[in-house]
Amino acid sequence: MRSICVFNHKGGVGKTTTAVNLAAGLSRKDQHVLLVDLDPQGNVDTSLQLRSEYSLYDAALGKPIQHCIVNVATNFDILTSKENLVKMEQQLLKKEDSRLLLKKILSTIKNYDYMIIDCPPSLGILNQNALTLGKEVFVPVSTDYLGYDALLKIKGIVQEINKVYQHNIKITKIIPTLYDRRNKLCREILTQLQTEFPSLVSNPIRYNIKLKEAPKNGKSIFNYAKSSSGAEDYALLVDEILKMDKSKVSKDDEEDELMI
Fold first, then answer.
1. Cα 22 to Cα 190: distance, rounded to the nearest angstrom
2. Which letter does DSSP use for residue 99 in this model?
3. Of 41, 86, 110, 118, which is the most buried if we count CB atoms within 10 A?
4. Is 118 in contact with 39 (CB distance < 8 Å)?
């Protein structure tokens, strides 16, 4: 199972949009996917209008994990989060083994091809849990200067996580988002990303109003507007992910990989 953290400590970069549509797109390619929402804001739940009875917090309190997972479509399951996850974060700060809680909760989960973790836009203990559980990091990067600057900081964060926790998670995909080819700065940032990280940068996700409308209707972009540029771009991203050489993910010294 490929465990992927969709992570950026900067908000407003299309992180949840990417996590939801990547998971939905992979499930449409006959991949069995579990999407884990680690954000107390519960944006995954909101985006798909799930209103699930149990959440990750209930699993942390001992509720069987199978009772907390919601099936939303063929091959597509979700473990949601709600505001009460803040309580779990506060409790984690008091525990010595706080970074292992998520691993303990999810350790019994099997029979998935992908587990995608939608991380909150922060540097807190929840993200430390995610980054010490996952094997790969996908970084959505808005194609502006602040987005590029955030990416450089994330590289350092990942390196520090690996050093402190003796882990080996890597940034394996950089996803340019909110791309407008009419905008000179967007073009310049995309070119810079492609130049500095040629093997990591995906096709850009163009700015598309349909991507903003889809959550209001409780649907992925594929269900809401399958002919839109948003659906086209995320379909291309899904194809890229499926074509990735899985053995490459486990190597330590790929020339263009960012180590964390």
1. 20
2. G
3. 118
4. yes
Q: What angle do CA 186, 189, 192 make, to 5 degrees?
A: 150
User: Which residues neighbour 152 within 8 Å (Cβ) at sequence distance 6 or greater?
Assistant: none
| CA pair distance 3, 127, nearest whole angstrom | 14
Closest CA to 127 of 256, 15, 202: 15
CATH superfamily of 2-241: P-loop containing nucleotide triphosphate hydrolases (3.40.50.300)
Average pLDDT score over residue span 212-220? 95
75: number of Cβ within 10 Å = 20
Separation CA 38–CA 17 (nearest Å): 14
Phi, psi (rounded to 5 degrees) for 179? -85, 130
Task: Calculate Rg over the CA atoms of the chain.
Answer: 17
Q: Where are the domains of the chain?
A: 2-241
Segment (H or E) for 139: strand 136-142
Task: Pull the structure tokens for residue 42.
Answer: 């519960």
- What would the pLDDT profile of 104-149 be if each residue is shown by its tens digit? 888 788 889 999 999 988 878 888 888 988 899 999 999 999 999 9
- Stated as kind and residue range, the H or E segment containing 165 is helix 145-165
Q: What is the DSSP letter of 231?
A: H
User: Roughly what angle, to the nearest 10 degrees, separates helices 229-243 and 15-27?
Assistant: 70
Structure tokens, 236: 């291309």
